[in-house]
Amino acid sequence: MSCDLAIIGAGPAGMAAAVEAVDLGLSVAVIDENPAPGGQIFRGLEGAAGDAALGADYAAGLPLLRAFRALRIGYRPATTLWHLEPEEGVLSLLAAGTTSELTAGRVLLATGAQERPVPIPGWTLPGVMTAGAAQILLKTAGAVPKGRTVLAGQGPLLWLLAAQLARAGAPPALILETRPKGRLAEALRAGGLLAGAPLLAKGLALLAKTRRIPRLRAVTGLHAEGTGHVRRVLWDGGATECDTLLLHEGVVPATHIPLALGLEHDWDEAQRCWRPRVDAYGASSHPRVAVAGDGAGIGGWQAAVAAGRLAALDAARRVGRLTEAGFARRAGPLLATRRAALALRPFLDALYAPPGWVLAPPEDATLVCRCEEVTAGQVRAAARLGATGPNQLKAYCRAGMGPCQGRMCGATVAALIAEARGTTPEAVGTLRPRAPYKPLTVAELARTG
Amino acid sequence: MFALRPDRFRPASAAGGAGQRRGTPDARTGPTATVEVFVDGIPVRVPEGASAAAAVLLAGSPLIRETPVTGAPRLPYCLMGVCFDCLAEIDGIANRQACMVPAVPGMRIAPQRGARVAFRS
């Protein structure tokens, strides 16, 4: 099997890229791990679009989803990309226990974002989850937390989830907001309020919907306690009982595959994360590979749609399906759309910048690697002994060597090493993941389709 | 602990075997079809399209896995394929990411206890 453009991920960027590329006459394959298109933001949309609890912005994804579904392309849901050989454009896939290969002239990574880890004491207890996880249960299973729920953290998703849970009849008992004092003043200085006014208005309306939920501001020293399950959440100066604790400190690009490919990355100081280096059309440092959407830097779904379409235009131009003039004509409005969608980012990034204790947990006993159960203290000790980065750390302990391959602990480990060695996460660098990008069995490897 | 929204699903009844059932249809709240799966041997009805990890949460199980290092109990954390804390034994296959596996009628989901046993003598 071969195609002009292989798109990894069927979220907003991937779906939009596919629609645009097909329109330009490219042969397209879309590989997505999830059983249905939509990515995380529009997850379960085909089944739950009419659910009033999820809100109008969720249903706004339906036109794109329907346009994507109408395409006659090689759409492969429930399929994992476990290796990509960029020199020849060979993709190794796993679906239903069987491996297969696909060759592509160009590869667009539209793998989106993941929630930033929130390594507090007790965050591995059953009953402690991410806000995104609770939202996925709401979207795909019509399920809500039972008993007393506490939300802790900050960022647009936290407020959105609070409003959605309230509308679904399960309002959180308490919101513990971790945004430090003074961030609003910093955010106002960051600007973008005028150009970002429509998004800001939506955000303020969302905040208004959650105003009846009790909240505490500028919370520090967060931790979860319980035997076998979370029973209490504690913070500096207080504590409360809970059955479910939902954590959220924003989202970061899912850089696992771009890093494994060895693409150039830049440290994004505003979003405190790494992002693949791409041009205005998503082209990465590798001539065959592009990255679009939140995976290239957090911007939200509207920016991702524009970025996906721009990457498709670039793919068409590269194979002569689009003249330079035709490219410029189509790209202009998309660049403007994306600029408008990103206008509020400087404000949001400054307002919801994660506090230092989220990035580098102060207590030595806190687990940072959930898979291999490595603590912050063990990472600090290794850094003092001579581990200069997350890759070197593997000679001292198993942080980053469990099944998640460092997706959860990578950023925390780098921040702890930076702190212990008196340098910056940027200087410490990232883990270099290896294929298979997700574990597969020898039997799966042997069963080729 | 998680529960199906009462405004969207009728309370599950204990009767009936594996298969699909449709609850009260309601255009405002989307589909209400459920499938029956077995979580650690106990039947539980979950909405069509939900994951095996969601089934474990809806079943009220205390854990979905015990860690290989200390045997600590875990339940799903991220539900989006990132954290690998939802590893479970699904239909006899160990270490599957339960959040990435859709629940289908008759599916058997058991906790992943420690590391996978490669060979049983």
UniProtKB/TrEMBL annotation, chain A:
Organism per entry: Roseicella aerolata
Residue stretches making up the FAD/NAD(P)-binding domain: 4-308
One Gene Ontology term of the molecular function aspect: oxidoreductase activity
Record's signal peptide: none
Protein name: (2Fe-2S)-binding protein
Domain named BFD-like [2Fe-2S]-binding: residues: 367-419
Keywords of this entry: Oxidoreductase
A Pfam family this chain is assigned to: Fer2_BFD
UniProtKB/TrEMBL annotation, chain B:
Region described as Disordered: 11-31
InterPro entries per record: 2Fe-2S-bd_N, 2Fe-2S_ferredoxin-like_sf
Entry keywords, A to Z: Oxidoreductase
GO molecular function, one term: oxidoreductase activity
SUPFAM superfamilies reported for this sequence: 2Fe-2S ferredoxin-like (SSF54292)
Keyword field contains Oxidoreductase: yes
Name by which UniProt lists this protein: (2Fe-2S)-binding protein
Organism the protein comes from: Roseicella aerolata
